[in-house]
Amino acid sequence: MSRKLLVIEDDHNIADLVALHLRDEGYDVEVQHNGNDGLTAALTGQYELIILDLMLPGIDGLSVCRRLRNEK
Fold first, then answer.
1. DSSP state for residue 4 in the 8-state scheme
2. Is the Cβ–Cβ distance between 39 and 68 less than 8 Å?
3. Using alpha carbons only, how large is the chain's radius of gyration in Å?
4. DSSP structural state of residue 27
5. Closest to 53 (Cα-Cα) out of 65, 71, 66
6. pLDDT beyond 80 at 72
7. Do β-strands 49-52 and 28-32 pair in parallel, antiparallel, or remain unpaired?
8. How far is CA 64 from CA 13, 28, 50, 53, in A?
9. Measuring CA to CA, which residue among 40, 33, 38, 34 is closest to residue 15?
10. Could you point out which of 13, 43, 51, 52 has its C-alpha 20 to 30 Å from the C-alpha of 62?
């Protein structure tokens, strides 16, 4: 079973804290800090869960979510 998660969060402190706690629970966590990179990672990777901030630089989180739902 894959335990790989993606966190898309532009605030580095929040992203680091979320990733730290998820890693403590045994998850493999990748972090992206803007909507463009997050969307690319989400489309090319295999993630069990994506944690997505709504207000992101580049593409906002709601647009990322919409594009992911259309692509997958």
1. E
2. yes
3. 11
4. -
5. 65
6. no
7. unpaired
8. 21, 21, 11, 10
9. 33
10. 13
Q: Which residue has 């966590």 as its token pair?
A: 29
Select the more confidently predicted residue: 19 or 71.
Answer: 19
User: Coil, helix or strand for 67?
Assistant: helix
> What is d(CA 64, CA 28) in angstroms, rounded to the nearest whole number?
21
Token pair recorded at residue 62: 């709601």
Tokens of 34: 């803007």
Q: What is the pLDDT of residues 4-62, one digit of tens each?
A: 999 999 999 999 999 999 999 999 999 999 999 999 999 999 999 999 999 999 999 99
Q: Is 10 exposed, middle or buried (0-12, 13-18, 19+ CB in 10 A)?
A: middle
pLDDT of residue 41: 98
Q: How far apart are CA 3 and CA 15, in angstroms?
A: 18
Q: What is the pLDDT of residue 56?
A: 97
